[in-house]
Amino acid sequence: MKAAPFAYVRPSSLADAVGELASTDGGGKVIAGGQSLTPVLAMRLARPDTLVDINAVEELGALRTRGGVLEIGATVRQRRVEHDPISRGVPLLGLALPWVGHRELRSRGTVCGSLAHADPAAELPAVACCLDAEITVTGPAGVRTVPARRFFTGAMTTALGPDDILTALSLPIAGRGEGFGFAEIARRHGDFALAGVATRVRLREGGSPEATVTAFGVSDRPVTRDVSAELASVLAGPQDTAERIGESLPDVLSEAAGQLVDTDGDAHASRSYRRRLFRVLAGRELGKAYERARRSADEVST
Ligand SMILES: Cc1cc2nc3c(=O)[nH]c(=O)nc-3n(C[C@H](O)[C@H](O)[C@H](O)COP(=O)(O)OP(=O)(O)OC[C@H]3O[C@@H](n4cnc5c(N)ncnc54)[C@H](O)[C@@H]3O)c2cc1C
């Protein structure tokens, strides 16, 4: 099939892009990398009357650090983030990006487009939620920021209004004593995940570690939970290794699995299989995150 006819505009300033979108009375759509939107148009799952191409808006192409965050503008390609040394400040991005589709798709697809598209099995929304990132949105009423954990409101649904443009994602730069993990299970590499996890562990001086897991592909949106108590319950002391934690944790993650994994089963996996995948992946990746956090703390203090 071919896309239904649409008008196409390519404004060169953010103000013009917002104006063009607002002038369509809800009938317009932003196009960034086009890797998700183009198939949607071709299958006529959406029939926007106007496409607002934001790629000529220079200010949306920035990839920079400021004030302790990595800021990724709306037209920054996933491949650029994957390879730019500036992204090393956010190690979870480096762990997650190779899992996003295929290299060719990442050459065009944008990080922000993936957030706006909000596929429940997508990797980057989970990264944003795990890190408690902030999303900047610009609309006719001005600029606002939305915490990533409140941005995703359902399957392919977000806090964006019809006239809003997602202008940037701000991710916290990792600090001393932080470690991360990421993994997913898909039928083939490049497919959307049956289940996946992003993890973060932060060591606190004199206290027990803070641990967070975000699961994706298991609900209608990425789902995040504090699992500090679960991690603390399996820690045994200096002999802790990623492998040992990865073996012990799945047994204590049953309650978390029951809460977080609520998707109906489908042709690829039942709900109970996804719960099992979650427990195993989360255990393993929390173990790795813990070990990396310890290494990060040691590196800075030696
Ligand atoms: C074969 C295939 C496999 C894929 N596998 C994966 C995968 O494993 N994991 C994964 O996460 N993704 C996957 N994708 C999707 C891909 O990563 C897309 O690049 C990404 O989801 C969307 O980014 P984009 O820049 O191409 O957005 P577009 O296609 O341009 O837009 C997607 C949607 O977001 C909206 N949008 C985009 N940018 C903005 C903005 N700045 N403000 C407001 N709305 C905006 C558009 O209106 C549209 O509704 C796959 C795609 C294909 C075709």
Task: Give a short synopsis of this structure.
With 302 residues, the chain is of the alpha+beta class. 36% of the residues lie in helices and 24% in strands.
Overview of this structure, please?
The chain contains 12 helices and 14 strands. The chain is an alpha+beta fold. It has 3 domains: 7-53, Uridine Diphospho-n-acetylenolpyruvylglucosamine Reductase, domain 2 (2-Layer Sandwich); 58-172, 2-Layer Sandwich (Uridine Diphospho-n-acetylenolpyruvylglucosamine Reductase, domain 3); 178-297, Enolase-like, domain 1 (2-Layer Sandwich). A 5-stranded antiparallel β-sheet has the order 4-5-10-6-7. Strands 11-12-13-14 form a 4-stranded antiparallel β-sheet, with helices on both faces. A hairpin with a 2-residue loop joins strand 4 (63-66) and strand 5. The longest helix has 31 residues, at 271-301. The model has no long low-confidence stretch (mean pLDDT 95). The site of flavin-adenine dinucleotide has 31 residues, from strand 2, helix 2, helix 6, helix 7 and strand 10.
Keyphrases for this structure?
302 residues; alpha+beta; Uridine Diphospho-n-acetylenolpyruvylglucosamine Reductase, domain 2; Uridine Diphospho-n-acetylenolpyruvylglucosamine Reductase, domain 3; Enolase-like, domain 1; 3 domains; five-stranded antiparallel β-sheet; four-stranded antiparallel β-sheet; 12 helices; 36% helix; globular; binds flavin-adenine dinucleotide
SSE layout:
Elements: E1 7-9, H1 14-22, E2 28-31, H2 37-42, E3 50-53, E4 63-66, E5 69-73, H3 78-83, H4 91-96, H5 103-108, H6 111-117, H7 123-130, E6 134-139, E7 142-147, H8 148-151, E8 152-154, E9 157-158, E10 165-172, E11 178-185, E12 195-202, E13 210-216, E14 223-226, H9 228-234, H10 242-252, H11 254-260, H12 271-301
Parallel strand pairs: 1-3, 2-3
Antiparallel strand pairs: 4-5, 5-10, 6-7, 6-10, 8-9, 11-12, 12-13, 13-14
The structure holds flavin-adenine dinucleotide.
